[in-house]
Structure formats: C-alpha cells, structure tokens
Amino acid sequence: MSNDDISEAPPSYAPCAAVRITPYDGDHPDHDQAVTYRFGTPITFVHVYRTRHPYLGTTVSRDEQQMPGLVGFTVPEDHEEADTALAVAQGLWQRRGTYVAVDLWSRSPHGYLYALVPFWKRLDLDEHPGLPERPEHRTVALGESCPAPRPVLWPRSVTEPGPYSVEPGVQMLLSTDVDPPPPAGFPAPTRTTGQRTAS
Length: 199
Description:
Residues 173-199 are annotated as: Disordered. It contains one helix and 13 strands, in the order E-E-E-E-E-E-E-H-E-E-E-E-E-E. By secondary structure, it is mainly beta. The protein has one domain (4-175). It has a six-stranded antiparallel barrel. A three-stranded antiparallel β-sheet has the order 1-5-6, with no helix packed on it. It has a two-stranded antiparallel ribbon with strand order 11-12. It is globular, with a radius of gyration of 17 Å. It starts with a strand and ends in a 24-residue tail after the last strand.
C-alpha cells in the first residue's frame, strides 16, 4: 500500500552448529524428508524483525502490523565449511515457491539453544540486498519467516513434555529444552509415538 511504511529492527545474530530443513507434504511437515546439516565452525543465522505502519496523516485508522521477519544465513569469506553452507542454500532453493520449516541449533555453555522457523519462504538474494551482514561475511541464503497459517505440532528432540505446539501467527519458536541436534543427512531424527503430525 502506498501509505504504508516498513521499519526494521536492528538485526539479531545466532551462530548455528546445525540446521535442519523439513519440507511440507500438503498441510503437514514431511519429517521423513528432513535433512540435517552440521557445522564444526558455525554459520550465522540473521533475523530482522519488521513492522508495517501507516504514515502520519493516513485517513484510515490502522494499528501497526507485524510483517514476516527477514531471515538468512551468512558465512565468513574464508569459512572452512562453505560447501556445507552452500548445500543449505541449495536445499532451500530446491523448495523455492513452497514453505519449509528450518530448525536451528546453537551451542551454549550448558548445551544447546534451539529455534524453529516453521514457515520459511525463500527469497532470491537480489530481492533484499540489504540483509545486515557481519564484517567480512557474505549471505548464502535469504528468506522470510512467515506467520504460521495453521496450527502445527512439532517434535522435540527430547521425549518430554511432548511436541511443540505452533499456533497460527507464530513466526519463530525458541527453546532451551533440547538435546544435541541429530546427525547430518538422512534419516530424520527418531520420534516417539504421537510426536509426528500425520501426513
């Protein structure tokens, strides 16, 4: 809309030791097709919170609206595992035009931190050339963290207390209650009964 203005919050950065891409089969995540990528030297996940709000003087009264967040992965120019980072980008490219879910694991002093972007929509790199990068980094993948259009149950890497419940409108889920990420590649991680949303 011509009267709308988009503002972006300062970017947040997270070093990722593992990334998992899960495609959707219709309305449900296809966990059997999930692929995990592990990194000895982390890649950087970038997230930018975006808001759309009307200009002053807009005649129609509307509240500010949260837009899909801008998300992406960057790596240093001399990253030792650039091929794996490019494989992540390729995995997202292969599902272009559809949503995928992207799990992220970051090492912490007490184990791992976890994030889930349940509905990642891939963007071409030239669609938003201003993705904030750290010095001497380059962007290898870009997307939007879109609001969940429907409820989704998402399996945890721990068996208790059951799957995460992603409610409509959620763009990202964060947790500290996780085990280490699954091994690289296929197959998908082991799940207990009731943790997978049926296809």
